[in-house]
# Entry
Amino acid sequence: MRDFAYARADTAESAAGALADPRTSVIAGGTELLNWFRLGIADADRVVDIGGLNELRGIAVAGDELRIGALATLNEIGEHPLVIRTAGALASACLQAASAQIRNRATIGGNVLQRTRCPYFRAEEPLPWPCSKRDPGSGCASLAGRHERQAIFGWTRDCVTVQPSDPAVALAVLDAQADVLGPAGRRTIPMREFHLTQREAAEAGQPMRETRLEPGELITGYRLPTSPDGQAYVKVRERASYEYAIVSAAATVRLWPGKIAAARVALGSVAQRPWRLTAAEAELPGTPLTREALIPVIERAMADAVPLPQNGFKVLMARNAAVRALLTAGGAR
Amino acid sequence: MTIDFARRVDVMLRLNGRDLTTVVSPRTTLLDWLRDDIGLTGAKKGCNEGACGTCTVLVDGRRMNGCLTLVVQCAGRSVTTVEGLAGMRGAGEVGGGQLHPVQQAFADHDAFQCGYCTPGQLMSAVACIAEGHATDDASVREWMSGNICRCSAYPQITAAVLAAAQEPAVGSPAANSREGR
# Structure
């Protein structure tokens, strides 16, 4: 593993201050960073540990807001009664992620910053193939090679990968805000805008940028509006547990007897960001909560999907996951 | 406010009931330290990337992958490995001597073939039971999914975990609290 110097932060401010130096990485749970150091994905020389900062811990409801500290682990969130009651899709997404022992280490602050699981990206250096994430401008071996698990929205010829986080999909559908601390002080980033597709990043002139987090910024926690709406997170994968999603969907549904009064729905593992189906959300009020009624609404909202040669099946699979998430959130079965 | 970065770090922790101080390079994982520096080779190095679970140990009673944990992250914490399991009652408490009921249940149910994954399975099972997740077949399979068995002894492992959960000394909430020793 890459060698590095280490320090424990005594405050979030001092950690953020240390991060102003681009040679410095932050560690919380470490389930990603250590593997990045092994593969040569991260090249920091210094690591600042925020794991002891109690100010970044805790799960609580204040007024109509659920607050989750960045250091809350996926197991703590997934089994917390307040989260289960007020943000059920997030609790479900957390418990469907990774394994029980990884969820005891992995934090919700780090989870949304995990990198893609693309096997061409996650290989030990030196890479024998092009990967623009590892060597900017080199191209995408997956596009020319195997890409059945890759994006159907927002990809470019430079990179076709997806963001694999389960919790990020729930945070996006629940309109969570990330609180961040950085050189310019504190600010918030809506989680539905936190990640960038390859196309969005290219249009902004930074083709390999993956999030709106600025260099030196630290996620300190999240705030979610508590919601009485029914919620669900549906994860479709090749084995029943401990596997990344092929596709996933998170939804919230408020019913007016027999019909949908309001609904939110987002897809996961279809793009480099959680994919809110905003066109469907505008159309869903008044729609009966039935599979037959939902399918055409979701299909219209996904009409701009551009699957790759090997992943056309993901369009149908994602449609069905969205429909199932809405039905489950609405209590249809 | 400046932070001082160090390339050697003093770490005080408790290992299998014994307090000790160690000096490590920050990149030393708990798994490598246990195996190479301390000589406890029960925790196995399978994938070394968090995929297989055979390095599972308890940190403050919670199961974690030793390969994804740095020693410096264990400062002030209590680490339990499979070597500390015999005589232990409930997660995080160490005694000495006879087989832990979970170990006995694995032997009774023939819950292994080659045995390479067994140390991790045992530690994960102890935690799974203490967490209250060893309630039925489906729950055990879900909450033990982070431990891969390539001999595929899963039916026997599941049976062993469920049987061990019935042992009063392991399965009762009192036995798993700090006050319940």
Notes: The beta strands of chain B are 9-15, 18-24, 56-59, 62-65, 78-80. Residues 172-181 of chain B have pLDDT under 50 and may be disordered. Chain B has seven helices and five strands. The interface with chain A takes residues 1-7, 9, 25-27, 29, 48-50, 53, 56, 62-65, 67-70, 72-73, 124, 127-128, 131, 133, 141-147 of chain B (CB under 8 Å).
